[in-house]
């Protein structure tokens, strides 16, 4: 496919910015939330429905797809976009986080990681070069460098070791990236909860001239204030004219606060996972549809939502589906959550463009208190 990968900033409000990323497969409006389609599917959703809710891009994962059904098989079938019937842009995670968190046994060295599959115990090797090769076979529009992510809290010497290794892997990933029109590679800032390490990582990655930059190793157990402090120290060191991606985040409040600090892209399993466990995200806050107070409630989850599912189905009905373990309950709540996340991002984009981000954030947070208070009263 022809065309360039371009990022343009249309407006700013403080550190926050709104704009667009142009790719041959479509434009990504920023700030953007990417629904997670780990194994080539956003769980419980048709691709057409994901697009209709406002998503411009989805995420898929190198680790899961290399194990099943295999990158070479997907390539032979026409690539990931055709395979999963998603014509828009796709970002692929490098697989590094999943190797560290899911693999049964793993051995890490300078070359890469040898690990056993969590599916069948088979042995595999993942290196920066192989990770980029897999992402190229999949046909990803945005490919992530291979990195090592440590859990927090973490000793500074361990965080430094992993950060420096990730920088060396970043250089190898950059060299291995198959440069094709319209495709991009992102570097990943690491460094645990250390400002000094984050700064060192960001500055070194900026010199490598990636098409975009991610903040990795956050939302892995640290308090929100630590995560925000890492964003605040890192963002000024990243090139202003390139996209900034906060990986694996997150809760609506995390999204709002990260956007205020200059982040452009997000992904998280939270809205889809919560939907499979009876929890809805709405303008009035989180709604636990498992709670007994919903059993006789004919009201919809949110009568003011632009999304039909959120407006039409009663809380009593969804409560019944959830308590009965019906698949439809998971499907409805997943759509409700993804619709809210996309509405939140659209609201943030509009607020930045209109120069009223602070007011929008205050109004949004005040709205979230309603359901929180009701749940607390029931408890």
Any key phrases for this structure?
15 helices; 379 residues; TIM Barrel; alpha/beta; three-stranded antiparallel sheet; 44% helix; eight-stranded parallel sheet; 2 domains
In total, how many beta strands? 16
Figure out the total of helices.
15
Q: What do the pLDDT scores average to?
A: 95
Strand content: 15-25%
Helix-and-strand structural type: alpha/beta
- Taking pLDDT < 50 over at least 5 consecutive residues as the criterion, the unreliable ranges are none
Q: How far apart are the first and last residues' alpha carbons, in Å?
A: 55 Å
Instruction: Sketch the major β-sheet.
Output: 8 strands, parallel
CATH homologous superfamily of the largest domain, by name? Queuine tRNA-ribosyltransferase-like
Assigned CATH architecture of the largest domain: Alpha-Beta Barrel
CATH level-3 fold name of the largest domain: TIM Barrel
What spatial form do the alpha-carbon principal axes imply?
A: globular
Computed Rg: 20 Å
Number of domains: 2
* CATH class designation of the largest domain: Alpha Beta
Helix percent band: 40-55%
Order of the strands making up the biggest sheet: 4-14-13-12-11-10-6-5
Topology, element by element:
Blueprint lengths: L5 E8 L2 E8 L2 E5 L1 E3 L12 H6 L5 E4 H6 L3 H6 L3 H5 L5 E4 L2 H7 L3 E3 L4 E4 L6 E4 L1 H11 L3 E3 L11 H21 L7 E6 L5 H13 L4 E4 L8 H11 L9 E3 L5 H9 L4 E3 L2 H6 L3 E4 L2 E4 L19 H5 L2 H10 L2 H27 L3 H22 L1
Parallel strand pairs: 4-14, 5-6, 6-10, 10-11, 11-12, 12-13, 13-14
Antiparallel strand pairs: 1-2, 2-3, 7-8, 8-9, 15-16
């Amino acid at each position: 496919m022809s065309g360039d990968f371009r990022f343009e900033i249309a407006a700013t409000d403080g550190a926050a910015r709104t704009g667009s990323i142009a790719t041959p497969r479509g434009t990504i409006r920023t700030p953007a939330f990417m629904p997670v389609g780990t194994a080539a599917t956003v769980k419980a959703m048709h691709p057409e429905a994901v697009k209709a809710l406002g998503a411009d891009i989805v995420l898929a994962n190198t680790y899961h797809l290399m194990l099943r059904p295999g990158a070479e098989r997907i390539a032979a079938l026409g690539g990931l976009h055709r395979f999963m019937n998603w014509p828009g842009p796709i970002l692929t995670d490098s697989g590094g986080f999943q190797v560290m968190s899911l693999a049964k046994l793993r051995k890490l060295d300078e070359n890469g990681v040898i690990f056993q599959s969590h599916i069948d115990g088979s042995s595999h090797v993942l290196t920066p070069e192989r990770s980029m090769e897999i992402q190229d076979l999949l046909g990803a529009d945005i490919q992530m460098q291979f990195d090592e992510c440590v859990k927090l809290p973490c000793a500074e010497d361990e965080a430094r070791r992993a950060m420096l290794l990730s920088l060396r892997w970043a250089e190898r990933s950059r060299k291995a990236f198959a440069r094709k029109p319209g495709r991009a590679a992102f570097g990943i800032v690491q460094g645990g909860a250390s400002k000094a390490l984050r700064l060192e990582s960001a500055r070194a990655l900026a010199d490598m001239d990636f098409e975009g930059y991610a903040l990795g190793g956050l939302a892995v157990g640290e308090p929100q204030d630590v995560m925000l402090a890492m964003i605040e120290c890192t963002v000024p060191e990243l090139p202003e004219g390139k996209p900034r991606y906060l990986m694996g985040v997150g809760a609506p409040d995390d999204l709002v606060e990260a956007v205020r600090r200059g982040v452009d892209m997000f992904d998280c399993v939270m809205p889809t996972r919560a939907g499979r466990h009876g929890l809805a995200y709405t303008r009035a806050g989180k709604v636990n549809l498992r709670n007994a107070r919903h059993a006789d409630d004919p009201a919809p989850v949110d009568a003011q939502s632009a999304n039909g599912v959120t407006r039409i189905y009663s809380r009593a009905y969804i409560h019944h589906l959830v308590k009965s373990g019906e698949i439809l309950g998971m499907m409805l709540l997943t759509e409700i959550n993804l619709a809210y996340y996309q509405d939140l991002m659209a609201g943030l984009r509009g607020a930045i463009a209109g120069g009223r981000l602070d007011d929008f954030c205050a109004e949004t947070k005040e709205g979230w208190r309603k359901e929180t208070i009701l749940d607390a009263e029931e408890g």
